[in-house]
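Listing S7. Sequence submitted for prediction.
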Amino acid sequence: MRTTIRQKNLSITPSLRSYIEKKIILPVRKLFEEVSAADFPILDLEFARTTRHHRKGKVYYAEATLTIGKTVLRAEVDDEDIRAACDILHDALAREILRFKGRTTAQNRRVARQAKKERYASEARLYRKGRIREEGS
């Protein structure tokens, strides 16, 4: 997994970088260990201070963009503290990832269910009156 960390109006200290790796990067890496090479995940993280003038309020901004093949998962958070923003970003990104994985699992099950139905279905269902145009007139 390729990871990019960007910063704007903010300096990322080594302790903050290790916190980001522990809270965001490692859990995402664990969730996508078995991904194929074609769907190589790319994680782009952006941390910023939205204003230099204000001292109080939600002045820190954190954004995560996870690209898996053609699918893009995004999460963005504003908060008063950059570490708290990382915590909330972790929760939001985990929610997006689980939703994505659940959706792909549901699609796989739906396709398997349809294949099983086609495999075990009787061919006589095609020959009822009205199913084939030439029959039963």
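Caption to Listing S7: primary sequence and predicted structure tokens for the chain studied. The helical segments are 14-31, 82-120. The two ends are 62 Å apart (CA to CA).
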